[in-house]
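Section handout 9: paired folding examples.
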Amino acid sequence: MVSFQFRSRSANFIYSRSNLHDAWFADEEKVRMTIGLLKKPVIEYPNAKKLTCAICFDTYWRHRMHDAACGHLFCSSCWGSYISTSINDGPRCLMLRCPDPSCGAAVSEEMINALVSDEISYVEASRKSKWCPAPGCGYAIDFVLGSGSYDVSCKCTNSFCRNCTEEVHRPVECDIVTKWMLKNTAESENTTWILANSKPCPKCKRPIEKRDGCMHMTCTPRCRFEFCWLCLGSWLLS
């Protein structure tokens, strides 16, 4: 099981900003090659209105073809499948390159967002990862499928069940925990309503609801204590 934090699908995943700044001015070409940032396309862009995708070999209008600023054009559908598959493969998708085996051009974050659904992210699409549910935690947990245990621990020290993301609850099953949480929520809502709309009887402490405008209150038949709603004092002594 591995904990990792997502910051950006950019070179910051490998370099700190200061290290990248120093390396850039020391050897710009080396940095460009490492991160796949090209100065110009590797091949010339064709002028044809229709082009053939090098992956599926179907023909498309030029506006349906895309490249990673390298000149290797592929259709929107093949790009989408390539990016989605890479997302499912793990954190390596954060340094995604052109599908052409001979090309190292980096795929920009803007291109990924344009070609893949907003709902897709590595964590949300992967069966092997879950976001830590702790408030304010930005970490995700990468775990081994088939390990037999659902209990995981995050770098933030929070422990939870990777199946339902509730607190660890072995040996109780997740569906039982879910029903218990729903029951507690309903009871909590009832308690909140009672506190907002009732007052305890000064004698027996049973919660009494005020339904009419009169301040003269009488407790339930077992108690029958009469009191003032405003001051909770005995009505008979007022």
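Moving on to protein 2 of 2.
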Amino acid sequence: MKRFIDDVAVEAIEAGLVAELGNLIDPVSVSIMSNNELDQVAGETETSRALRKDLETEIAVLKGGMAICRQFAGFGFFDLDQGGFGSDSDAEPGSGSDQNDASDLEASAEAAEELSACEEY
């Protein structure tokens, strides 16, 4: 019942506002306004322009990061361990030095961490 009462109140208020809207701003009055008047009525503040520019930059950075994540999304940890990053895939198992095996394992672990970070987004 409360929702119905709220909806009736909203409809009554909106009907009153919308009915008067044509008297407030009509196309003819807008067409004769100066640029300064239009900026005052519908312009964007310097603060909102700066915020919009920052957000557009952030969106571009995030889209770039998303593209990188999608590039590596097809790799699984097993794929990376089998030669995805820096390991010699033609080498016989156990033929490399322990140092190379350790660096390959570190690279695989780092890539897996990056992948899991990308999957969180």
